[in-house]
Amino acid sequence: MGMNQLFIAELQQEAASTRKLLERVPLDKADWKPHEKSMPLGRLATHVAEIPGWASVTLEQDELDFAKMDYKPVIAKDNQELVKILDVNIAKALKTLKNSPDERFSENWTMRTGDKIYFTLPKAAVLRSFAFNHQYHHRAQLTVYLRLLDVPLPGIYGPTADETM
What we know:
By secondary structure, the protein is mainly alpha-helical. The radius of gyration is 17 Å and the shape is globular. A 3-stranded mixed sheet has the order 1-2-3. The longest helix has 26 residues. About 50% of the residues lie in helices and about 10% in strands.
């Protein structure tokens, strides 16, 4: 089994759980946040939907230079748009992964802002940390937001207090 197939299997498994969670986000409370330093709910949910697309950024480029970017954060207007953002990014990631030979996963990738380098790692490690684990971190954060808003949580890795699966 190639490296790409390992990441594809995980991405597909996790996408289903992420979709179930995003479908429940109360975007009528998009500006809500649990603390003044926290990201607002709508931005966090959209961020969770965007992150899978970072697999393509990782595998198709050799670096991400924030100094050369003009990133404008998006906030989904409703759950349909939120899930569509996720689906588009999952499809893009799957296409890139399917077309990535094993050798690409050992090539180096760098995150920087101009001359300031944050890290340089093999692309497989960047996929694991910057793309996959990063999404799981924010998805878990989103479950806390939803719990604080008394939104029933779907099972992600098993039953929850709200669903026995």
